[in-house]
Amino acid sequence: MKQSEILQFLQQVAKQKISPENALLKMQDNGFTELEYAKIDTERTARTGYPEVIYGAGKSAAQITGIVQAMKQHEQPILATRVAADKAAAVLTQEPQLKYDEVAHTLVLSVAPPERIGEIAIVTAGTSDINVAEEAAVTAELFGNEVTRIYDVGVAGIQRLFSKLDLIRRANVVIVIAGMEGALTSVVGGLVDVPVIAVPTSVGYGSHLNGLTPLLSMLNSCAAGISVVNIDNGFGAAYNASMINHLAGGKQK
């Protein structure tokens, strides 16, 4: 650590802006926090502009709680995705300040309310896609983006989509979430002048193949300007959309 950084921490302690314990923790920081089961990347925000995110599936409630507590020591915003309700309840007994979203299956703690800029439109083909859409929405909002939700406007009743076109076209980037055959992506891609991020979902009947059919359909879209993330990956879509929206400088259309 540079002497100027050490001096800055000492000055903050003298002004009682941070505690001596926190100052010592920061001065000893080697870029990650070592836990028995995880290494918390404390420099990710400085490198990439976005904090580390906890993938909750496959982790125990105790492990999620330990990671949350380590991140809180570094005053990082917290987002845990794919957290089942029973697991979230166990985490909340230890960290009640977290907010659980039962639809998105996320746990969130904002260090400070972010200044939200620009606009991301999140569009779903059906109501059954909303859990993936809400994972995207929660992520995008935590990362400082205005979000407009436009749900259940699939091609089976395409007039519903047309009634919302003004809202969709106002955004700097559009996330389109669809299961079944995934046709909504191509339709939206042909109607807007901004990047479209497609999310196939595992919603559909047998030959839908748990999301493989809309994934291939979206990858083969005839509309230009479309990128595709993995099946049910609302988080990944929101991360990319946030980067695009911030590159646009939060410009309002």
Q: TL;DR of this structure?
A:
Residues 118-250 form the PurE domain. The protein has 253 residues and is α/β, with parallel strands linked by helices.
Could you walk me through the main structural features you see in this protein, from its secondary elements to its overall organization?
It is a single chain. The chain is an alpha/beta fold and 253 residues long. The protein folds into 2 domains: 15-24 and 31-109, no CATH class; 117-247, 3-Layer(aba) Sandwich (Rossmann fold), CATH 3.40.50.1970. Helices cover 39% and strands 19% of the residues. The protein contains 11 helices and 11 strands. It has helices at 3-14, 20-27, 44-48, 61-73, 85-94, 130-142, 159-162, 165-169, 184-189, 212-219, 234-247, and strands at residues 32-34, 39-41, 54-55, 78-81, 99-101, 106-109, 117-124, 145-150, 173-178, 196-200, 226-228. A 5-stranded parallel beta sheet has the order 8-7-9-10-11. Strands 3-4-6-5 form a 4-stranded mixed beta sheet, sandwiched between helices. β3 (54-55), α4 and β4 form a beta-alpha-beta unit. It is elongated. The termini are far apart. The model has no long low-confidence stretch (mean pLDDT 88).
